[in-house]
Amino acid sequence: MMETVESIILNGFNFQKMTSENLDKLFELNPNRREHIRPISVESSGAFGIGGYQYAVCEYIFVEDVLMNPYDVRDFLISSSYVCEQNGAPGMQQVIANDWVRPYLKYLYYLLHVKNIVKEGRMGMNHFAAYTNVFWKEMPCRDINYHRPHIDPGDYAFNLFLSDTFDEDDGTAVYSLTHNYEKWVDVMEMESGCGLRLEEIYKMMYPEEFGVRGMDKWKCFKGDKDYALEGIIPAQFNCISGYKGSLFHSPHYDISKYPDGHLRYSLVSMVAPGVLERTLSDVSKERIASQLDKVL
Ligand SMILES: [Fe+2]
């Protein structure tokens, strides 16, 4: 039987009210945070136009000690929505409304602009989609999750790590895929430069033998005959990592290093596809080209 209207009272919402002032205070940025652009160095193969040199072909954003109250933010996120574990991704995900994390998204928006990743006016707050990833030892997943790197459905992904017990070598692993002796770390650059159609690249990424065995348990992928591990974007407590969604990547979560019950908890904020006009790789290539101009 449906509840009567009279059973819902205004005071019943009091404990769930959140003012914008409280939200700003909760997500207060640490004035001593440290913002970096860091390279992932890949042995040059000529794939990026300048053969014979070793240089960075992709870069990522890394912000250290970003929040003043990371534990309060973590408690707030955990209690703010239900968790789903049946959406195809490993572990569990919690959809987080943009309004709940608006001050944080404003900061990501600022980072994207100030680092020249997206031009002013090309996106707004609603181009973000936020959710948390809850990964743990023994979590259910498919072989396609743990034996293959993936690309994201968004242009750019940010991770705010809120577990305080990560091994320093864990994080997000970036891989290269080789075709005709050329290495590629970015599916979009591979499509435009390697002579294969996107569908053919997808067949390389996801051979038929993967994804047909049902649910299994997480294993940490470290590369195989197709993929070479090129670098790991670190996961550190209260730090943000940001990278292009088109990189071949996967969570590097080596469960052999952790006790039973360990959780890898992070807030993911994804920029919608089609938003970015200039990418970090473009910036990298311009910087490399200008450096080479000076050398030559
Ligand atoms: Fe991803």
Describe the fold and architecture.
This protein has helices at residues 20-26, 70-78, 102-114, 143-146, 187-193, 198-205, 280-295, and strands at 34-42, 55-64, 92-96, 128-136, 140-142, 156-161, 171-179, 182-184, 215-217, 227-234, 240-244, 249-252, 263-271. The protein is an alpha+beta fold and 296 residues long. The protein has one domain: Jelly Rolls (Sandwich), CATH 2.60.120. The longest helix is centred in the C-terminal third of the chain and has 16 residues, at 280-295. The radius of gyration is 21 Å and the shape is globular. Bound molecules: fe (ii) ion (FE2).
Helix and strand arrangement:
Blueprint: H1 20-26, E1 34-42, E2 55-64, H2 70-78, E3 92-96, H3 102-114, E4 128-136, E5 140-142, H4 143-146, E6 156-161, E7 171-179, E8 182-184, H5 187-193, H6 198-205, E9 215-217, E10 227-234, E11 240-244, E12 249-252, E13 263-271, H7 280-295
Antiparallel strand pairs: 1-2, 2-11, 3-4, 4-13, 5-9, 6-11, 6-13, 7-8, 7-10, 7-12
This protein binds fe (ii) ion.
Fe (ii) ion binds next to loops.
